[in-house]
């Protein structure tokens, strides 16, 4: 029934659900599945990608939330929105929910700029060592593969922790899922490259106990992030 399943190829099991969805995007586009048609069962997709059914299930939940698929209990999963070979989860997210993505970034800006300023005042010496460690990891990965979305998030989370207000990290964590695809965009998207050197400058401002400089640098980084987002939105239209 699904002769196109040879289009599915195993991916490394540690890869994120974002990359699982990119693999599914390629499958849907290459198989010629049309809007309204049924996708293969989760079991078949999981076998083709060599990942767990739960991994596929969680990835499909993201598509469902965006209205890309419709899952009918007892009937299966049906394609609801056109998917092309040039799409990625990131571009599909922007096509379907760009306003929410920009709103989430706005909330992140409001919280993060102040969190960076607080970290410059409140960070302990061990906090600073931890932030610098996360920065070193982010820089190493970025220079090695050209992108470090997950490591970038860990660096910023370390700054939130150093602000010593646990609600700040909880609040921004609540919108992390909305920005998940953007943080984990693949290297070929070439995002964050312009803001990359500003991250060490931000750390240095925090280490020097300069809250106003830290606040300004956080805002500068997020200005670049917003610019990159809008470029992806325009390209996805």
UniProtKB/TrEMBL annotation:
Keyword DNA-binding: yes
UniProt-listed SUPFAM superfamilies: GntR ligand-binding domain-like (SSF48008), Winged helix' DNA-binding domain (SSF46785)
Keyword Transmembrane helix: no
Upper lineage: Bacteria, Pseudomonadati, Pseudomonadota, Gammaproteobacteria, Enterobacterales
Residue runs in coiled coils: none
Keywords in alphabetical order: DNA-binding, Transcription, Transcription regulation
Naturally occurring in which organism (per UniProt): Rahnella inusitata
Residue ranges annotated for the HTH gntR-type domain, each copy included: 14-82
CDD domains per the UniProt record, alphabetical: WHTH_GntR (cd07377)
Protein's name in the database: FCD domain-containing protein
């Amino acid at each position: 029934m699904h002769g196109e399943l040879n289009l599915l190829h195993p991916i490394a099991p540690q890869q994120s659900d974002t990359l699982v969805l990119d693999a599914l995007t390629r499958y849907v586009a290459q198989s010629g599945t049309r809007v309204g048609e049924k996708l293969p069962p989760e079991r078949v997709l999981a076998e083709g990608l060599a990942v767990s059914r739960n991994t596929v299930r969680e990835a499909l939940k993201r598509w469902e939330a965006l209205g890309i698929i419709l899952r009918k209990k007892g009937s299966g999963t049906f394609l609801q929105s056109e998917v092309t070979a040039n799409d990625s989860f990131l571009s599909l997210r922007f096509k379907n929910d760009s306003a929410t993505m920009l709103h989430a970034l706005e909330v992140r800006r409001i919280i993060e700029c102040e969190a960076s300023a607080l970290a410059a005042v409140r960070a302990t010496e061990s906090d600073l060592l931890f932030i610098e460690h996360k920065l070193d990891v982010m820089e190493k990965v970025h220079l090695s593969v050209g992108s470090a979305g997950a490591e970038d998030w860990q660096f910023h989370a370390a700054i939130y922790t150093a602000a010593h207000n646990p609600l700040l990290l909880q609040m921004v964590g609540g919108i992390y899922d909305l920005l998940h695809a953007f943080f984990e965009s693949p290297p070929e998207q070439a995002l964050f490259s312009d803001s990359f050197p500003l991250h060490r400058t931000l750390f240095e401002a925090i280490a020097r106990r300069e809250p106003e400089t830290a606040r300004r640098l956080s805002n500068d980084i997020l200005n670049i992030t917003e610019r990159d987002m809008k470029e992806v939105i325009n390209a996805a239209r």
